[in-house]
Structure formats: C-alpha cells, structure tokens
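Internal QA ticket QA-208
Title: Verify multi-chain structure generation after dependency bump
Assignee: T.L.

Test input:
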Amino acid sequence: MNIIHQASLSGDCCRLIDGEILFKAGQKADHIFLVERGSLLIVDLLEDTPLRRYSQNELIGIPEVLADECWSVSAIARGITDIRVFPAERVRARIDEMDPRPRAFISELAKLCA
Amino acid sequence: MKALDIIGEFQQAWPQQHFAAGARIIAPDQPTDRAYIIIDGHAQAPRRTYGPGDLLNVIEFLALDSYLTPVKAKQKLSAYVMSREQMQDLCMHRDQLTWPLSCMLAIDITKRGISPWGHA
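Actual output:
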C-alpha cells in the first residue's frame, strides 16, 4: 500500500516535498487530489514540458476518474505541497448519489476535459 | 451546455430579459456576475451558436471573474438572467456538491486550454 492510497483511506493530507512526483503518466487515475498548500506542476515527462499548475483549493483528476482512465501526464510538487486525497470509488459513489440533473451537468463538464 | 435542467421547476420564478436581434448579451470583460440561459431564440458567439436551454459561455461563467467571449442575439431572444448567487443557490439546492464541483471542473477545463466551443 503506497502513501497516496494510505492517505486516501485515512482522509489525511499527504505532504510532498519540492520535486516529489504525485503520479506519473500511465498510472491508473484511481484518486482525485485537492491541493491544500503549495502547488502541483503538471508535466509531460517525455517532452520535459510543463503544461499547467494547480494551486491551493484546486482539484485534479475528476475527468480522469469518471472516465476510468490512466493519467496521460505526470504531477510534480513545487515547494512543500499538501494534498488531500480522495479514492476514485468514493468520488464515483458520491456523484452517483446526486440528483440526475446536476449529475448530468457535472458529467457533461467532465467530458469537456476528456 | 444545456442548463435548464439545473434550474428545473424553478425556472418560472427567474427574471427574464429580452434582446433585439443583433443586441449584445455579453461583452468581453463583463463581470461573470450574471448567468444567461436562453429561453427562446438563438445567440451567436464568434465560434458557436447557442439555442434554447443553453447557459451562455458556461465555462467562463463558472471559472472566471470576467467573460472573455462576446455573445450577441442572432434574432429576437429571451433569456433567464440570474445573479451568480442565485445560480449558486439553485445548484446547491439540488446537491451541495454541484456548484463547487462545477466551478472546479470549469477551472480545470480553462487550465487545460480546452476550447468548449467544439463540445458544448
């Protein structure tokens, strides 16, 4: 059991140091991540290209989790970074519980990211 | 992006605004403090046409402080116009998660640089 999975089960925050990799391209997207402190740089490691940055209170991974996909990019912490981890099953279950109309709205938005 | 389902049975209660053909509905830099949902007619943005039920510039409304893309009435048009707070309350009335999740997804779409024009 890795530290990300452990944090997701306990509902804890996961603290990353500068340069630490949260996930890599090709890994199954089985968690979503909320940045609570610091920032995450999304990169294409093959091309060595930074793509975007997520900062405090920004969420990563809903589209990938809903589409049951693997990550196509990698995420690297910039500075000390605290991440709240939520398991995919819990996210999917929560969205499934929603009223059908807002659920459809969320699904349409998520598909725009796919 | 159809949004009438979100406001659902409450729609009769919302203020309506009428626009003449060619009238500007949304201007660039206009604060995203108002949501526009078309009731009748069509609206034109540079890269797409909106029809009944569409929430205009949905990603910009949810993710940004100001609209970027201008929208004009293509023909005589009626729209529900609601404040950001009203839209938020309406979304959260159905489920507390709807509003924050929608905004976070819209921010994500904006970050990914994905144009919603081809999809929504």
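Spot checks passed. The domain at 4-112 of chain B is CATH 2.60.120.10 (Jelly Rolls).
Status: verified.
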